[in-house]
Amino acid sequence: MTSAVWHPFFQHATEPDPVRAISTEGAYIRTDRGPLLDAVSSWWVVTHGHNQPQIVQAICDTAGHLDQVIFAGLTHQPAEDLASALVGMAPAGLDHVFFSDSGSTAVEVALKMALGYWKHEGDGRNRIAVIEDSYHGDTIGTMSVGERGVFNAAYDPLMFGVDRLPFPVGDRSNTLDAFETLAATGKMAALILEPLILGAGGMRVYSADVLAGLRAICDRHDVLMIVDEVMTGWGRTGRLWACDHTGISPDIMCTSKGLTGGVIPLAATLASGRVFRAHHSTDRRRTFYHSSSYTANPIACAAALAQVRLWQASPMQDRLDALETMQGERLAGLAEDPRFENPRQCGTIAAIDLKVPEGGYLSEVGPRLRAHAIDQGVLLRPLGNTVYVMPPYCVTAADLDKAWGAIASFQV
Ligand code: PLP
């Protein structure tokens, strides 16, 4: 097949031709190789299921009368309604909503808000603390606050320096003590983290106590806490937000992926009154100078609002609890299998490592498992030798059997 398309995270020299998607419905993608169970929610975006009818309807209704309008100096009902709904659902104190269009831009906005805050407060704080192995996106700023490695080595000259905290192990004091020391320097503008689980960093799980401990240190030393809920938000960890496991509120929170149920791109960065007020001034130099052409696209906002309404109208918590149980049962089925190690779960997300001589992202086992799963009618996307199942919430028990069956039948 000849194609002009340059695919993301795809080695055209070695990988077989991409699978061609034809249509989507529920937990499935119909393709030229037959139906595929979307066990990775199409890069973690699809929450309720593909082509969720109310979301699709909202898109069609809005597209018929209101398409893109400039969002600087103009506003519209879908954005207004969505912003107030988000404020009502988000951790307490996040009262201001800034729209953008991807997880990466939501994080870039968060970083700019944090640095802007300290600049406008007249304080010289400009260091950012991060947790090792984190992932926050692929733009220069988000790569800078993420883990360095094969993904971004070529761009190193463009990236800025950050202070890295070790991933929590044992009694977790390694992370908390390291942060306490850094925060006490008085130079830390913000801490940015993925709450409870590092996604692209290998589905590494840590406890809600650490999150609460880090919040307490931020409070003690006046460091802004940025929580990146781009992957974890909208139920993945078993609660609406990962932050809900502890009741903490960040100063800034990023959401995208499941915001529209995974149907259309949109992102939002929510900020506390304190962060907003630092930019609110008769001095125009304090304006928050960030935008993108499609900021708050009305069609995307309407889709997100329909998605939000699903949370408000249906017993989503029951669905998440049931999925968490089903995932746990299937993961337990592989826990004693000598080919696997490190079974772990965070809400609806379950992961396990394949025991191989060469681990890491470039482990050759990943592409082989992916190809094997496609033959079994399942879309998986291992992170090196880590395989995970993160399905849309509409999956059935039989679907999950199929996904985990594909993993179990793989010859390492
Ligand atoms: N933050 C986290 C935690 C993510 O997992 C991702 C994407 O996987 C991003 C940010 C970047 O999102 P996007 O790919 O929409 O730019």
Shape: globular
Q: Kindly report how far apart the N and C termini lie.
A: 30 Å
- Regarding CATH, which class of the largest domain? Alpha Beta
Number of domains: 2
Supply the number of helical segments. 12
Proportion of beta-strand residues: 15-25%
Uncertain segments: none
Q: How would a crystallographer describe the biggest sheet?
A: 7 strands, mixed
Report the structural category: alpha/beta
Q: What series of H and E elements makes up the topology?
A: EEEHHHEHEHEHEEEHEEEHHHEEHEEH
Hetero groups bound? Answer: pyridoxal-5'-phosphate
Mean pLDDT: 96
Task: State the fourth-level CATH superfamily of the largest domain.
Answer: Type I PLP-dependent aspartate aminotransferase-like (Major domain)
Largest beta sheet: strand ordering: 4-12-11-10-7-5-6
Stated plainly, the CATH topology of the largest domain is called Aspartate Aminotransferase, domain 2
Record field, number of beta strands:
16
What would CATH call the architecture of the largest domain? Answer: 3-Layer(aba) Sandwich
Instruction: Tell me the Rg in angstroms.
Output: 21 Å
Give a brief description.
With 412 residues, the protein is an alpha/beta fold.
Feature tags:
34% helix, binds pyridoxal-5'-phosphate, alpha/beta, Aspartate Aminotransferase, domain 2, 18% strand, Aspartate Aminotransferase, domain 1, globular, seven-stranded mixed sheet, 2 domains, 412 residues, 12 helices
